[in-house]
Design brief:
Blueprint lengths: L2 H11 L1 H9 L1 E5 L5 H11 L3 E5 L24 H12 L4 E5 L18 E4 L4 H13 L4 E3 L24 H12 L5
Parallel strand pairs: 1-2, 1-4, 2-3, 4-5
Helix pairs in contact: 1-2, 3-4, 5-6
């Protein structure tokens, strides 16, 4: 990240932390309403390498909630459209777009990886559970977005270990499916 562009972040977290971010590689799987915002925040924060994974193309119905969705990107791969946007924001970052679905059959393309962290922003339970299992199995920390869609009170958003979640139907399903794989946290 250019020195001037990072100046406010350096004031907030310091040179050492910025150097760690610049050296980090994060993968974000799913570039929809959650993933597009997450990956843009990571790029703006100074993460040095981002792998963007999504199989979908931008559609007109995405424009109201996804950062990669513009009139000019309708029909384009979400991974490629988001990569172009991020290259404009953080020209020094390595941006790796992958137009594919993360799922058990494609796991070998992604794990093991050199990731500092993985972000699960996928909609499908089977893909989410496999991504979490693969990340944990490779020692990669993972953050998983669960049931925040269609919620009206942003103040109720919580960040917690999956075992500590409550009141979220998706989290309940994820806990059950991950327990079947021997994963409690």
């Amino acid at each position: 990240m250019e020195k001037e562009a990072a100046s406010r972040s350096v004031m907030l977290i310091g040179e050492g932390a910025m150097a760690k971010l610049a050296a980090a590689h994060v993968t974000v799987c799913g570039l929809g309403g959650v993933g597009s915002y997450a990956v843009e925040a990571l790029a703006r924060s100074g993460v040095g390498k981002l792998t963007l994974v999504d199989e979908d193309a931008v559609s007109e119905s995405n424009i109201n909630r996804q950062l990669c969705a513009l009139g000019s990107t309708i029909g384009a791969s979400k991974a490629e459209a988001m990569a172009a946007r991020l290259r404009d924001i953080a020209p020094g970052a390595a941006i790796v777009p992958v137009t594919a679905r993360y799922e058990a059959a494609s796991r070998g393309r992604f794990f093991p990886g050199d990731y500092a962290c993985a972000a699960d922003c996928i909609d499908l339970v089977s893909c989410k559970t496999d991504l979490i299992e693969a990340a944990l199995g490779s020692g990669t920390p993972i953050v998983s977005a669960l049931g925040t869609g269609n919620k009206l009170d942003a103040a109720r958003l919580e960040i917690a270990d999956l075992a500590e979640t409550h009141g979220c139907p998706l989290a309940r399903v994820m806990r059950r499916e991950l327990r079947r794989r021997g994963i409690e946290h």
